[in-house]
Amino acid sequence: MKVTVFGIGYVGLVQAAVLAEVGHDVHCVDVDQTKVDNLKKGMIPIYEPGLTPLVTSNFEAGRITYTTDAASAIKHGELIFIAVGTPPDEDGSADLKYVLAVASTIAENMDSHKIVINKSTVPVGTADKVRAKILEVQTANDKDVSFDVVSNPEFLKEGAAVNDCLKPDRIILGTTSDVSEKKLRELYAPFNRNHDKIIVMDVRSAELTKYAANCMLATKISFMNEISNLAELFGADVENVRKGIGSDPRIGYQFIYPGCGYGGSCFPKDVQALVRSATGVGYNAKVLEAVEAVNYRQKEKLFDYLMQHYNNDLKGKTIALWGLSFKPNTDDMREASSRVLMEKLWEQGANVQAYDPEAMEETQRIYGTRSDLSLMGTKEATMNGADCLVICTEWQAFKAPDFDAIKSTIKDQVIFDGRNLFEPSLMSEYGLQYYGIGRGLSV
Ligand code: UGA
């Protein structure tokens, strides 16, 4: 089928690649000429396991093309995805200016029936706004071409995006049009073989499903972080509690890992956006406000441990920091806990020697060159001359370090672990002091 994707970001590029992989003919449009030129040269703008070979092979096979020419791309696609960004506005609500700009462009250039599909995470009611925008621009241009607007939210996880897209656990189609449903079922048939993953519903329910999913997951995390803080105060071990509750299938083991807070481009933004949307319809979303507040506090947890350990005096301390990305297998630093920590450490006059398997360039891009940040080539190198070790991200490569080397290199022989990678009893055997989330200090 002939498909057009607006926005060659995370969601758009992965979506385009998997659709091309099963044989669809995909034209990708972006306003960023450099990005388009780079993609044509095989330079992929994001780090995502498995994406480069997928994109490259489909580009070489001619099933993906990149362009800034929206008019020709709109002519091409009978199905047009909108996968542009919806950054948070000043008040935390999702800014729809890019989505609506694409809607205008589609309206100006369409000359046959189009199915416009919202892939971006957008507030409930956005499909109606897209529809209204297309009608408005058509009217202004004296046009009357039929179209439909469908909500088809994306549920991919960074770091597992290709797999999530190739093997989705659900495909939500928000439409009441039989024609659109039939076309989208045909589009997604290759991903819907073993059992029916397609769930069809009205547009607003589909839009809310996306927010509800992310907010539910964020709620699980904040809830668990709250329990971890209580565990510490009660003298319990949150890791035992986690296993204890996870064994109940109604709760489950997934997404109940306590840590130094959730980050990324989705959870913080989506929780805030749903809170703002709720306010817009006169509702105070108290659970979600608490989810956000708990996460905000949790991102300061490692800093609080450090202040406690060093009697509120971090001036001149050198901190070895492992993990900068908001989670493993990505170079994404958006809303990463490491940033909150580093910025608070710098305020106190501490120095950071950091390492991340993928996010070094991104850290450099964000913070530039500064005397209190040294980006090191290996995790071992961060420890040279450091007073303590802090872990912010649970990369696989951090899970079995040489504890003897840590003990002999780190001056104060102490680890602050924001992801509970190690057993406190093992740390004691190595003679290391150890702070774990919901576990406090063990010596
Ligand atoms: C999230 C959702 O998981 C996807 O389903 C969704 O499609 C995506 O947002 C989106 O809206 O586009 P992602 O932001 O890539 O995906 O990241 P997650 O893997 O969900 O992790 C989010 C954060 O939660 C990370 O900082 C992670 O460290 C933290 N987390 C996760 C915990 O602190 N504890 C857990 O038990 C699980």
TrEMBL record:
Taxonomy, superkingdom: Bacteria
Binding site for NAD(+): D30, K35, T86, T121, E158, K269, R334
A Gene Ontology biological process term: polysaccharide biosynthetic process
Keywords from the named record: NAD, Oxidoreductase
Pathway where it operates: Nucleotide-sugar biosynthesis; UDP-alpha-D-glucuronate biosynthesis; UDP-alpha-D-glucuronate from UDP-alpha-D-glucose: step 1/1
Molecular function GO terms recorded: NAD binding; UDP-glucose 6-dehydrogenase activity
The UDP-glucose/GDP-mannose dehydrogenase C-terminal domain, residue ranges: 320-424
Alphabetized PANTHER family for the sequence: UDP-GLUCOSE 6-DEHYDROGENASE TUAD (PTHR43750:SF3)
Protein name: UDP-glucose 6-dehydrogenase
